[in-house]
Amino acid sequence: MRLDKFLKISRIIKRRSVAKEVADKGRIQVNGKLAKSSTDVKIGDQLRIQFGNKILEVGIDELHESTKKEDAAKMCHIINETRLENNGN
């Protein structure tokens, strides 16, 4: 499954166009390697996503072509969530 589609279906990022933009700006790694929106992801992969001042690390548990809101949470688990300090005063 494409990375941008996974991010939308799992509801990590609400819109696929936003997921594509984040990936193409070099803010997502899959298994430690920089990923583009078209990168294929599979069960067992680990994603590292940088959102502004937050880094989210998740593991992929399930892949579905479509899902209900309740089932989206089962698609991945949070490994780590880190807030970056803003030292630019």
Automatic annotation (TrEMBL):
<dbReference type="GO" id="GO:0019843">
    <property type="term" value="F:rRNA binding"/>
</dbReference>
<feature type="domain" description="RNA-binding S4">
    <location>
        <begin position="1"/>
        <end position="64"/>
    </location>
</feature>
<dbReference type="Pfam" id="PF01479">
    <property type="entry name" value="S4"/>
</dbReference>
<protein>
    <recommendedName>
        <fullName>RQC P-site tRNA stabilizing factor</fullName>
    </recommendedName>
</protein>
<keyword id="KW-0699">rRNA-binding</keyword>
<keyword id="KW-0648">Protein biosynthesis</keyword>
<dbReference type="InterPro" id="IPR036986">
    <property type="entry name" value="S4_RNA-bd_sf"/>
</dbReference>
<dbReference type="GO" id="GO:0072344">
    <property type="term" value="P:rescue of stalled ribosome"/>
</dbReference>
<comment type="subunit">
    <text>Associates with stalled 50S ribosomal subunits. Binds to RqcH, 23S rRNA and the P-site tRNA. Does not require RqcH for association with 50S subunits.</text>
</comment>
<dbReference type="GO" id="GO:0043023">
    <property type="term" value="F:ribosomal large subunit binding"/>
</dbReference>
<comment type="similarity">
    <text>Belongs to the RqcP family.</text>
</comment>
<keyword id="KW-0820">tRNA-binding</keyword>
<keyword id="KW-0694">RNA-binding</keyword>
<dbReference type="GO" id="GO:0000049">
    <property type="term" value="F:tRNA binding"/>
</dbReference>
<comment type="function">
    <text>Key component of the ribosome quality control system (RQC), a ribosome-associated complex that mediates the extraction of incompletely synthesized nascent chains from stalled ribosomes and their subsequent degradation. RqcH recruits Ala-charged tRNA, and with RqcP directs the elongation of stalled nascent chains on 50S ribosomal subunits, leading to non-templated C-terminal alanine extensions (Ala tail). The Ala tail promotes nascent chain degradation. RqcP is associated with the translocation-like movement of the peptidyl-tRNA from the A-site into the P-site.</text>
</comment>
<dbReference type="InterPro" id="IPR025490">
    <property type="entry name" value="RqcP"/>
</dbReference>
<dbReference type="InterPro" id="IPR002942">
    <property type="entry name" value="S4_RNA-bd"/>
</dbReference>
